[in-house]
Amino acid sequence: MPGTKHPKIVLDNFLFTINQKKKDRTMWICSKYPRTNCKARLVTFGRNVKMTRGHNHDPVISDDMTKDMIVQKAHIIRCDKTFTEDYIAEK
């Protein structure tokens, strides 16, 4: 929900939570990090999302779970340096 205390991002059916906020960007970690030591990370700056490192587990979010989330269009930069335009869901 917008304005929630603990925002989340869903990308490719994986859930990310805020790890660190800086003036011009926000760093996100995989929500499964505490249990699986997953190294997947996101960095957001404006409507740009840079994804680094892959996940070491299966997706955690099903499509029906995202139906009530706010969907925003964003530019996705994946760790292999590809640049795509995609949609992210925020909880």
From TrEMBL:
Name the record gives this protein: FLYWCH-type domain-containing protein
InterPro entries given in the database record: Znf_FLYWCH
Lineage: superkingdom: Eukaryota
Keywords: Metal-binding, Zinc, Zinc-finger
Originating organism: Henosepilachna vigintioctopunctata
Molecular functions per Gene Ontology: zinc ion binding
Domain FLYWCH-type: residue ranges: 5-57
Pfam family, one: FLYWCH
